[in-house]
Specification:
Mean pLDDT: 91
Number of helices: 16
Largest sheet: 2 strands, antiparallel
Shape: globular
Radius of gyration: 25 Å
Order of helices and strands: HHHEEHHHHHHHHHEEHHHH
Length: 453
């Protein structure tokens, strides 16, 4: 070398300077994995839009698609300004975070304590994507009577009032549920239970849909199957990324997630056949999503083989509940958000208390089947608290919107369709069949327009 130093020597000097200045040394592999996983999770919100859009009537397709899109955008801003700090800032009474990270302050190259091998910006973005899909899940309950602007307003208020406190209780190292001993690997309580019980409140508040067309069935099952497939794909990032490292625990989360989804699709099909004497294509897609939900709280804690049982029972429980709801007309949860996320999130959180096991010396976990029944009690405490907080706070938000006259669209807009009423657009035009034309007539038409000279 001209300067008497080799490249390896120069690199050693730079590394020593970084260490002496106190700079944090990150894992390139962990950072790359969590960045990739975050992109997977971001995909889940528009995928949910397709999943939901296929389940509603044709006149409301665009509304469901764009609500998911708009909610992701709006919640991203709220999370940056307030939400992240309330969820992950320094704990105030083990209940909520302080203003440490307001408007992205103090977020940069330094790591967050719970994810020491990745930059805090990466941790922030992963949590943003997980947060954004949660209120988007809820809008499936009042679907077809809840328009775009109110859904965005609801989502922003709900994230601050409901999501952020629960996130702090469960995920923050000093949150009261985490200190109590409750565990949630990727968001069974934080995302799915909170969304499910909030959806139940919104279903009660928004009332039943007007049915003037005579059918309430899905308009495009292909959309829903596509959305379900993309959700399954995105869930690998959602559950696997929650390890915040390219580690064996991330691998366990991916394997458990996949097995649970597969077994739930099977159990849903079995229950469908018992009640309807046929298997539903849509049901298989919905069943797989139920398995993904059920495994979320325990995917990094429970042995992989247990995911077959957790997923199978999750799919069966959800299908049975939805069958009973439809039979007895308990309430109009348009897209069965509570039946999927509420039921499977609750079951998965409880099941984690039974099967969870980790020999990690820093935070050992042993569930009820491994001799530590206390974990079951801690999980039940989390289930009751999260369910009540989500349901009651959502009722308050919903009643406030009802008083303001923005909870539900008027009957004319509902009958006309939210796509036309809100956007004056339709997803696609339906072309009526042309009258049957004989070959001779078609030849004469083409000849008239000089196609054949």
């Amino acid at each position: 070398s001209t300067w008497g130093l080799s490249l390896s020597q120069i690199r050693m000097v730079v590394d020593n300077m970084a260490m002496s200045s106190g700079a944090t040394e990150f894992s390139a592999g962990d950072t790359a994995w969590v960045l990739t996983a975050s992109a997977f999770v971001m995909l889940m919100t528009p995928a949910l839009g397709f999943f939901y859009a296929g389940l509603v009537r044709q006149k409301n397709i665009l509304t469901l698609l764009i609500e998911c899109y708009a909610i992701f955008a709006a919640v991203g801003i709220i999370w940056a300004l307030l939400g992240y700090s309330l969820g992950f800032g320094d704990s105030c009474g083990h209940f909520i975070g302080d203003s440490k990270y307001f408007a992205l302050r103090n977020i940069g190259a330094d790591p967050y304590p719970e994810a020491p091998t990745i930059p805090s910006y990466v941790f922030f973005f992963f949590q943003l994507c997980a947060c954004a899909i949660t209120p988007a899940l809820i809008i499936g309950a009042p679907a077809e009577r809840f328009s775009l602007v109110p859904s965005v307003i609801f989502s922003c208020v709900w994230v601050i009032a409901v999501y952020c406190p629960i996130c702090h209780w469960v995920f923050h190292e000093h949150g009261w549920l985490k200190e109590l001993g409750a565990v949630d690997f990727a968001g069974g309580m934080v995302v799915h239970m909170s969304a499910g019980y909030s959806a139940l409140a919104m279903a009660f508040l928004s009332g039943k849909r007007e049915n003037t067309s005579g059918t309430m069935g899905p308009n495009n099952i292909s959309y829903s199957v596509l959305g379900g497939a993309l959700l399954w794909f995105g869930w690998f990032g959602y559950n696997g990324g929650a390890a915040f490292a390219a580690s064996s625990r991330a691998g366990l989360a991916l394997v458990s997630t996949n097995l649970s989804a597969s077994s739930a699709a099977l159990s849903w099909a079995i229950v469908d056949y018992i009640f309807k004497k046929k298997v539903s294509a849509l049901g298989i897609a919905v069943g797989s999503v139920c398995g993904l939900i059920a495994m979320t709280p325990g995917c990094g804690f429970c042995p992989a083989w247990s995911s077959l049982i957790i997923g199978f029972l999750g799919g069966a429980f959800s299908n049975l509940f939805i069958h009973l709801r439809e039979t007895y007309h308990w309430f109009d949860d348009s897209l069965d958000v509570f039946g999927c996320h509420g039921i499977c999130g609750t079951w998965g959180t409880f099941a984690t208390g039974l099967w969870a096991y980790s020999s990690d010396s820093t935070s050992p976990i042993e569930g009820g089947f491994y001799g530590r029944g206390k974990l079951v009690g801690y999980q039940l405490a989390g289930i009751v608290t999260v369910a009540l907080w989500s349901f009651v706070l959502t009722l308050i938000i919903g009643f406030s919107m009802k008083a303001a006259g923005i909870l539900r669209v008027d009957k004319t807009a509902e009958e006309y369709g939210l796509d036309k009423a809100t956007f004056d657009e339709v997803p696609y035009e339906i072309i009526t069949a042309m009258p049957r034309t004989t070959t001779a007539q078609l030849f004469n038409i083409l000849k008239h327009y000089s196609i054949f000279d």
